[in-house]
Amino acid sequence: MNDIGYLSLVIAFGVAAYATLAPILGVKTGREELVRSAENALLALFGLVTLSSAALLYAFVTRDFSVRYVANYSERGLPLAYTISAFYAGQEGSLLFWTLNLTLFGTIVVIQNRRMHRALMPYVISILSAVALFFLTLMVFVTDPFARLPFTPPDGRGLNPLLQNPGMFFHPPTTYLGYVGFTVPFAFAMAALLARQLDDAWIRSTRRWTIFAWFFLGLGNMFGAEWAYGVLGWGGYWGWDPVENASFRPWLTGTAYLHSVMVQEKKDMLKVWNLALIIMTFGLSILGTFLTRSGILSSVHSFGESTLGAFFLAFLAVIILGAFGLLINRLPYLRSENQLDSFISRESSFLFNNLFLVGIAFTVLWGTFFPILSEGVRGVKITVGPPFYNQVVIPIGLALIFITGVCPLIAWRKASMTNLKKNFLQPLVTALVGGALLFIFGVRHLLALLSLALLIFVTATIVLEFYRGTRARHEMAGEGYLRAFFILIARNKRRYGGYIIHLGVLMVILAITGGAYKVEKEATLKKGEEMQINQYVLRYEGLSLYPTQTQQVAAATVTVFNQGKKVGKLTTEKVFHKDEQQPHTRVAIRMTLKEDLYIILAGFDESGTATFRFIINPLMVWMWLGGFVMALGTIIVMWPDKRERRRAARYALGEAPDAV
Amino acid sequence: MQFRVKFYPVLLLVLFWGTMNPLAPLARAQGLTVSDVAKDLACLCGCGLTVESCTHGNCGFAEPAKARIKQMIAQGRTKEEIIQVFVSQYGERAMAAPTKKGFNLSAWVTPFLAIFVGATLIYFLVQAWVRRREEFLLREQRRMARPEMEAKYQEKLEKELKSFD
Predict the structure, then answer these.
(1) A366–B110: do the CB atoms touch at under 8 Å?
(2) The pTM is what?
(3) Contact between B8 and A384 using a beta-carbon 8 Å cutoff
(4) Cβ–Cβ gap A382/B133 under 8 Å
(5) pLDDT digits (tens, 9 = 90+) for A28-78
(6) Which domain holds residue B81?
(7) Which residues in chain A are contacts of B108 at CB distance < 8 A?
(8) Is the ipTM above a cut-off of 0.90?
(9) Coil, helix or strand for A500?
């Protein structure tokens, strides 16, 4: 099977090279059959990469430790689920997984566009195949997933115990789906430039792809945060690690893109900016992949022995220079008669939304590379970590929250005083009164207070929007309020789904704001001793030591009393894996809507005395609930809509568009 | 109007119980903890995180660093003093964020400068678009105000269209 796997990659390499060149040749010579043939080649490519992936998975499941990658990332005692996730735990497998997703998406694009976008498709096929060709080149010539060891070890080295967690099962594939997903809108954007078809047909047809990629990248970040919080045991969820930052940046520019394309669809403006944004987003996705493999930055995510940095840097340079060069070359075709009625309008609020999103992305990029710059200029190594990001990103983030409230409700073209009063007076008063009450009731942390007041403002604007829409349906169609509410959403999926996503984002920000009131205590306790943190009294009940098949576990149990009332027992563990020098911690979390009580077993001695870190993380659960609400909103936004599909199809077939 | 009267107190209550209530009891000041200091010190084991958030269970750098921080807190040293001890031993890279002086200041200023430049650009861009719109509207107004010109152009257009046939 291993030989079949490698052979499939070699053949796929040849097929990808053909699918990259044939469509361009087809366009140049006017031979449509070459384009069709390249489309079929892309389908074959997916088949070949699937076969190769199946072979690698088979090697994992059958514990074929003659394959170096399998021996490095699995062992006999590894549960099946983590044996499967080991597929993308290392460099070679993650490259294969990237390619598998890319060729799958390519296949879907081919099937979707058999009759549509015929002028764009040759270039789309060529670009998707070229990206696949790059990854296949790495796997065939540089880092073969099927490389053999000179001998077959009796067992593998096993999967890092920290990666044996449900969060880590989902985090890499969802993140990759996001990264890879952005290739499709990028390919269409480049195709539009190459084919000089620069209306917004490509935007309409790739809207779902963009939302799909954006959603999965966000979900990947969320799974990563959940994993860090529940597994790493330091009481936080986001460490501003260079690779966390790497996946955050394209999410930010992708968010900016999703908003600014609305201006192009509605007003035929910002064409150049939208193209620049999608190039940046795809470029930043590749940069993220480069950073994990370059060794230029220290990160918990790095593939230690990677040698692929130079390849990715060259690939990134080609993408950025090629794409921006093409964009500059096509500027004469992108001129639009930009006109605005007023500075106070939705159009300009979108521009500021983009400014803050791209501003945060820039800050994160700047912070990531500043240590290299500093070393180059001053010859001094410095660190740019969480205190920098928190101090710089938070003020920009607050401005972004404000714009999130303004953007959806301010009128297109020109906002009159009546429009402003109607949409913003009540939310503004609510926020001011709310902020004052929060202050009176003891919230004195300035940034937290500001953040909460802004959250109230934006929530009020959204609730008001839902209320007005529901009431209008109730009055005009005579529907009951509940029915009117659901029909309102069903008939305007994009708009109200968007509001729901905003609500989810607000919940996430609420959790982040709660961090301003994080409380932490460390205590060394003997069996039966108690300590207090806020309203909680915690009694240490003792330590138990026991072995499992692959681990030695030390488990400390703590009884929790909340305001004098016993609310349960929590167990936190230190786990010593047989092949790992470093133990890892399993934290205990008591989660409520109000706060998390988070207990870490920091150490213990032979007498059973244990050292704990007790943390209270206020409002933490709202982060995960916010993630669910964002997912719900995204599903609504992406749900098939007949009217929209008909409109997009008309665009794609080159028919006159409807008035928007 | 009836709705507004009912709606706002309810909204206020919901929002405040969701946000204010859990925070109020936590607002009191806490003493200096290991975490307060550890979050501002970089872990130098190669993880790229802070002493507080290093992912290694028994990190060769973070664990001894935490023990030292604990000891120094017990001795009554301030956060700044403790950080200075680490900086004098390991250099600037021991701090989790650059200082706000000299070349390092550019790390802090550049993002805000970029936002400022971007905002200025947007301002002038939007002003130009607004002016363009005003000029367009003015042209339209003038055109509409001169029906004889309109008739003249109409006649010319019809002639040209005929010549196409």
Answers:
(1) yes
(2) 0.88
(3) no
(4) no
(5) 998 889 999 999 999 999 999 999 999 999 999 999 999 999 999 998 888
(6) 32-97
(7) 388, 391-392
(8) no
(9) helix
